[in-house]
Amino acid sequence: MAVDYLVIVVYLAGMLAMGWWGMRRARSKSEFLVAGRRLGPAMYSGTMAAIVLGGASTIGGVGLGYQYGLSGAWMVFTIGLGLLALSVFFSARIARLKVYTVSEMLDLRYGGRAGVISGVVMWAYTLMLAVTSTIAYATIFDVLFDMNRTLAIVLGGSIVVAYSTLGGMWSITLTDMVQFVVKTIGVLLLLLPIAVVKAGGFSEMKAQLPTEYFDPLGIGGETIFTYVLIYTFGMLIGQDIWQRVFTARSDTTAKWGGTVAGTYCLAYALAGAVIGTAAKVLYPKLGSPDDAFATIVKEELPVGVRGLVLAAALAAVMSTSSGALIACATVANNDIWSRLRGIVKAPAESAENAEEHDEVKGNRAFILIMGLAVICTAIAIDNVVEALTVAYNLLVGGLLVPILGGLVWKRGTVHGALAAVVVGGLAVVALMATYGILANEPVYYGLLASLAAYLAVSFATPATDAAVLAAWRERLAGRAPEAEPELASEPAATSR
């Protein structure tokens, strides 16, 4: 294992070095939170693919393949579909808004007062997303070093917190590009073909396994529908995803770069399912499907290659973890803390002056604080699937309707948006307590309750002010100067 250890140590050291280098570039709020909005197509595509394909997509995707066969690809497949939908239909408009958070978009669209409540829901989602990725370190480091679970979480989490705190989005972007390359080589080019060969090829896999393992719909239509609701729609509205859209150099980059990343996700989904299916042939009686990835890596890969594939798993986990962490800190600072203190920031870019440097320090401090909270929560929580389900149920049930409604329906009002967030969020929590966290009913009925509240309250309250809508349309089209939205949000700002 010495060679494998060396590969992992070099990889982790490289992540920290990237963080240090990124710190030298992150000299303004824009540089720190959205990489100066300067990413070109290649870097944008790589980093977007890296953040959406995390530990759940890699370790969990292989586990679903082990349990259900090729239809186990549906979870990651719906993530790719969501990214494609976001990129084709919404990303160009989102990039033109020039904001930092989803809540700022809601304030622009509805004229203010939606920020804090929506920010709390988004913060809960990003926190739990970061927690689920951090828990996954325990699986990987257990294979590598037979390490205690708590120590593994602290070690992996500390490295992510360190490079994220140092350089913000620039550090995360640089590390994500490395992680994207490592993940592509480790999972797609090495583990996939080796697993299929070790299992005897596809003909032997078909001979050894039940026919339902090769049924594209074997996982069940209801499960697929739930995946679409949670993951496809979740991709459309998550702060972690939008914050990457904000890094694009242009709306064209956001659209086509995201399309490439979404297509990559579809290939990654199929690869994970095939690897899991091969693991089922090789190890038919594992204690848990989630052990399939670690087992096939540990038992079937040669020295050196094993280290690279485990580095790929670490890359998958770290990319999602760091993206969720900076999103969580951005929401906590900009949408909750600053507003509660009465410091309402205009969603426009400002000059790189002393105030900008102070904002960098403030956002850096929040990443550190949120990082410590994520590590402590990950130690306390044991079930990754439940934590991830809570995160996406809150996101979709509370925020999907007001966000998409604001983008496509001009009659929606701020009161309708607030009602949708509150009713949908509370309904999801109550239904999870009633039916269970992993049940399908919470997201189904929570989403319907949110939609009903949005429509009823919007029709029952005065339409959004024409000046606010005019400023929104100009901003959405990319024609308005970046300072203009401040005028539209000033009346709402004074009322917060």
From TrEMBL:
<feature type="transmembrane region" description="Helical">
    <location>
        <begin position="391"/>
        <end position="409"/>
    </location>
</feature>
<feature type="transmembrane region" description="Helical">
    <location>
        <begin position="416"/>
        <end position="438"/>
    </location>
</feature>
<feature type="transmembrane region" description="Helical">
    <location>
        <begin position="303"/>
        <end position="332"/>
    </location>
</feature>
<feature type="transmembrane region" description="Helical">
    <location>
        <begin position="259"/>
        <end position="283"/>
    </location>
</feature>
<dbReference type="InterPro" id="IPR001734">
    <property type="entry name" value="Na/solute_symporter"/>
</dbReference>
<feature type="transmembrane region" description="Helical">
    <location>
        <begin position="152"/>
        <end position="173"/>
    </location>
</feature>
<feature type="transmembrane region" description="Helical">
    <location>
        <begin position="365"/>
        <end position="385"/>
    </location>
</feature>
<comment type="similarity">
    <text>Belongs to the sodium:solute symporter (SSF) (TC 2.A.21) family.</text>
</comment>
<keyword id="KW-0472">Membrane</keyword>
<feature type="transmembrane region" description="Helical">
    <location>
        <begin position="44"/>
        <end position="66"/>
    </location>
</feature>
<dbReference type="InterPro" id="IPR018212">
    <property type="entry name" value="Na/solute_symporter_CS"/>
</dbReference>
<dbReference type="InterPro" id="IPR038377">
    <property type="entry name" value="Na/Glc_symporter_sf"/>
</dbReference>
<protein>
    <submittedName>
        <fullName>Sodium:solute symporter</fullName>
    </submittedName>
</protein>
<dbReference type="InterPro" id="IPR050277">
    <property type="entry name" value="Sodium:Solute_Symporter"/>
</dbReference>
<feature type="transmembrane region" description="Helical">
    <location>
        <begin position="6"/>
        <end position="23"/>
    </location>
</feature>
<keyword id="KW-0812">Transmembrane</keyword>
<feature type="transmembrane region" description="Helical">
    <location>
        <begin position="180"/>
        <end position="197"/>
    </location>
</feature>
<keyword id="KW-1133">Transmembrane helix</keyword>
<keyword id="KW-1003">Cell membrane</keyword>
<keyword id="KW-0813">Transport</keyword>
<feature type="transmembrane region" description="Helical">
    <location>
        <begin position="116"/>
        <end position="140"/>
    </location>
</feature>
<feature type="transmembrane region" description="Helical">
    <location>
        <begin position="444"/>
        <end position="472"/>
    </location>
</feature>
<dbReference type="Pfam" id="PF00474">
    <property type="entry name" value="SSF"/>
</dbReference>
<feature type="transmembrane region" description="Helical">
    <location>
        <begin position="72"/>
        <end position="95"/>
    </location>
</feature>
<feature type="transmembrane region" description="Helical">
    <location>
        <begin position="217"/>
        <end position="238"/>
    </location>
</feature>
